Amino acid sequence: MSRFLPCIFLLLARLLAVHGLGEVIYAVNAGGEAHIDVYGVRYEKDPLTGKIGTASDFGKQLVIGRVPPGDQVLYQTERYHHSTFGYDIPLKGDGDYVLVLKFSEVYFNAPDQKVFDVMLNGEIVAVAALDIFGRVGRGVAHDEYIPFSVAGHRLTAGGQESSLRGTKLKVEFVKGYKDNPKVNAIFVIKGRLDDVPKLPPLPREEDLDSETEESRQMPSVHPSSSHPHPHTSNNKQQHQSAKRRPSGPRTPDPYASDDTSSMLPVFVAIGAAIPILFCLCKL
After folding, report:
1. Alpha-carbon torsion, ordered 60, 66, 68, 72, to 10 deg
2. At CA 125, angle to CA 124 and CA 131, rounded to 5?
3. Structural domains of the chain, ranges and CATH numbers in brackets
4. Residue 260: exposed, middle, or buried by beta-carbon count in 10 A (0-12, 13-18, 19+)?
5. Scanning 174, 204, 205, 282, which has its CA 20 to 30 A from the CA of 94?
6. Which letter does DSSP use for residue 62 in this model?
7. Closest to 59 (Cα-Cα) out of 95, 108, 111
8. What is the DSSP letter of 86?
9. How far apart are CA 98 and CA 262, in angstroms?
10. Does residue 41 contact residue 187 with C-beta atoms inside 8 Å?
11. Using CA atoms, how far apart are residues 255 and 159, in angstroms rounded to an integer?
């Protein structure tokens, strides 16, 4: 019985995680197969396969940052299209919802290459000029959290309103002037933004915070001044360096020896050459 306890605990944890998310009403792994993430959300296989756009798993050659290994597939597969495309998401009556769009840039190595908008119902701009690389760089997960509400036949998101036709929400990735729009995964819950788990902070942000904290804890150059002038600091460092004694025994200076002894062979050679020159002249 004990060997089954870890499996039971894992199952309970996933059930609790899904319950904490609210009611998951839609989840799809764009361009990929079905997948259950660490929170227990079941992503269905992409319904647009063979219908519109291009499914790609090019991102599988990368290790995606900010996500656990088991969920990297959600950011490694994608669907893109050379024109505007989208998904029809079923809704469940009036109330608050959150749309989560998952992205990662797996192709470009610079910003301003892939830039596009995300629209709801063809009227509400939910995300304007999304540049994934510009937000997080290459091979890093990026989520867009879009809260919206439904009341009657009205859809409200970000202070914008739209008429809701039927019981489905149209989410579109709008083709602009920069490459092709894309998406890696989508899920929708019936609940509030606080009910949605967020990605951890960017690693570079954490590193920057750590460096800033270390710089604050570093001792100042002069005990009476917490902000020394940079030129003053450099002069003090040079002065301290000049006073520092080198380690190890003193090395003899080769140029400090007697110059006379070093010239003796020259004098001997000149003395020997004079008689020879005298004899040559008499001949």
Report:
1. -20
2. 160
3. 25-208 (2.60.120.430)
4. exposed
5. 174
6. S
7. 108
8. E
9. 91
10. yes
11. 85
* Coil/strand/helix, residue 156: strand
Whether 87 contacts 78, CB under 8 Å = no
Question: Within 10 Å of residue 132's Cβ, how many Cβ atoms?
Answer: 25
Strand pairing report for 85-90 and 168-178 = antiparallel
Tally the residues of the chain: 283
Tokens of 193: 């933004």
Q: How far apart are CA 175 and CA 194, in angstroms?
A: 31
Closest CA to 178 of 87, 106, 108, 103: 108
Rounded distance, CA 43 to CA 79, Å? 15
Element at 232 (helix H, strand E):
helix 230-243
Helices marked H in the chain — which ranges? 5-21, 73-76, 132-136, 203-217, 230-243, 259-282
Written as one letter, the residue type at 197 is: P
Whether the CA torsion 128, 134, 138, 143 is positive or negative: it is negative
**Which tokens is 35 given?**
């997948």
In one-letter notation, the amino acid at residue 165 is: R
How many CB atoms sit inside 10 A of residue 7's CB? 9
283 residues of the chain, pLDDT tens digit each: 555 444 443 444 444 444 457 799 999 999 999 999 999 999 999 999 999 999 999 999 999 999 999 999 999 999 999 999 999 999 999 999 999 999 999 999 999 999 999 999 999 999 999 999 999 999 999 999 999 999 988 999 999 999 988 889 999 999 999 999 999 999 999 999 999 999 999 875 555 556 556 555 654 433 333 333 333 333 433 333 333 333 333 334 443 444 444 454 445 456 655 655 555 555 5
